[in-house]
Design goal:
This protein is mostly helical and about 220 residues long. It has five helices and two strands; from the N terminus they run αββαααα. A two-stranded antiparallel ribbon has the order 1-2. A hairpin with a 2-residue loop joins β1 and β2.
Length: about 220
């Protein structure tokens, strides 16, 4: 008995049509995914360059504050030349004002960057609290707290900037004009202040007369 195969051309034609539809849909989906990937990479680069500029400026300002010991050319900075007072304003960093898609960053890195304003506010409040009970006219403990605090904050910001560069495969920060890097300067200032505070505390502990031991001046550049 002969088998009627006249229907095969129709089946093959239908299968070819369905296969073509599937292939066309797959290619369209692949093109859209590729465009989305390229868009995400461009947004990441844009965010990285923009945020890095702000982080670098913030870290540089932290370095400037870490050098502020309340004097101008070695003399107390107040108008009457008696009291030490701040000569460099505290830096501000407001990441939420930047028009970028933060979600393209890893969650941990995004959290630490967005948390910088809160950490800065905490440090400023701590400095003001120390100043309220500090001894004039030098306010040494105030300046030590401020200088060391901003040196440490500057190091944290520099570390975040380095992580962001690595994440986006951007060049690492070069040394400053062929000299020490910003991180080296911040680290040196932090350690210098810590040593001065430690030396003073040891002198106070060793003072057998129980008389107040005035602290030395805070540390400049």
């Amino acid at each position: 008995m002969a088998i009627d195969l006249s229907f095969l051309p129709s089946v093959i034609s239908a299968a070819s049509g369905l296969g073509g539809v599937w292939l066309g849909g797959w290619l369209t989906t692949r093109r859209e995914a590729e465009r989305e990937r390229e868009r995400s990479e461009k947004e990441s680069k844009y965010l990285g360059i923009l945020v890095l500029a702000h982080l670098d400026r913030f870290a540089r300002q932290c370095l400037e504050v870490s050098y502020d010991n309340g004097t101008i050319q070695g003399q107390p900075a107040s108008d009457d030349g008696i009291y030490h007072q701040f000569t460099v304003m505290e830096p501000r960093f407001e990441p939420l004002e930047l028009k970028v898609d933060w979600k393209v960053l890893p969650a941990d890195l995004m959290y630490h960057i967005l948390n910088l304003p809160y950490k800065t506010e905490q440090l400023i409040n701590r400095v003001h609290g120390v100043r309220e009970y500090d001894e004039p006219p030098e306010y040494t403990e105030t300046f030590w707290t401020r200088q060391q605090g901003f040196a440490e904050l500057g190091l944290e910001v520099s570390a975040l900037a380095r992580q962001l560069r690595q994440q986006l495969r951007l060049p690492t920060e070069p040394p400053t004009f062929g000299g020490p890097s910003r991180e080296d300067l911040l680290r040196a200032q932090r350690d210098k202040i810590a040593k001065a505070r430690g030396d003073w505390e040891r002198r106070v502990s060793a003072n057998d007369s129980h008389e107040p031991t005035p602290p030395p001046d805070s540390i400049g550049p």
